[in-house]
Specification:
179 residues; alpha+beta; 37% helix; 29% strand
Length: 179
């Protein structure tokens, strides 16, 4: 026998609810994960080399609001990269694979975790953090925001991306001095 319409409708509504839930946090396909890690590496390398133009090109514009606009952000970035140039040496940097893809309005967001060990003079620091990677839904190119600024103010993530689902879990974000 055929199932009664009432049961079919209930099953359909459950499937639709599940599809909506899945749409908020999907698994990032391997091909996309490889692309986002490659582009995150370019973003990190641009900062490490002091290449402000490349770094700014790969930066997501949501971060401009924290600096009062694009021009102040660009000026602060150029100054910071110039002052950092040559002062710290990255000894090791390893990217993890972003697991989930979150949809926030017209954008897809994932977190690209990384561990980096750097030396500044006599001090070695180990950073375990992540980049916030953002792209327009259906597009291939990602833009990034370094999550270092979220360490003391995790609520900034919601300010930047208010459409992000409530229960988003971010990767570790900490700095420690190592021997």
């Amino acid at each position: 026998g055929d199932l009664p319409l009432r049961i079919k409708m209930k099953a359909l509504s459950c499937i639709l609810a599940l599809a909506t839930w899945v749409a908020n946090a999907a698994v990032l396909p391997d091909k996309d994960a490889q692309v986002v890690v490659a582009q995150a590496t370019a973003y990190r390398d641009a900062a490490a080399k002091g290449d402000a133009d490349k770094f700014l090109q790969l930066t997501h514009p949501a971060v401009f609001t924290l600096f009062g606009g694009k021009e102040p952000f660009e000026a602060a970035t150029r100054l910071a990269l110039k002052s950092l140039a040559g002062s710290n040496v990255i000894e090791k940097a390893t990217f993890g694979v972003p697991a989930e893809l979150h949809v926030a309005g017209q954008e897809e967001i994932c977190f690209v975790p990384f561990v980096q060990v750097a030396r500044a003079g006599d001090i070695r620091i180990r950073v375990e953090s992540f980049f916030i990677a953002v792209r327009s839904v259906g597009k291939a190119d990602w833009k990034f925001i370094d999550a270092a600024g979220l360490r003391k103010q995790p609520e900034v993530l919601r300010q930047l991306f208010p459409g992000l689902p409530e229960k988003v879990v971010t990767p570790p974000n900490k700095v420690e001095i190592v021997k």
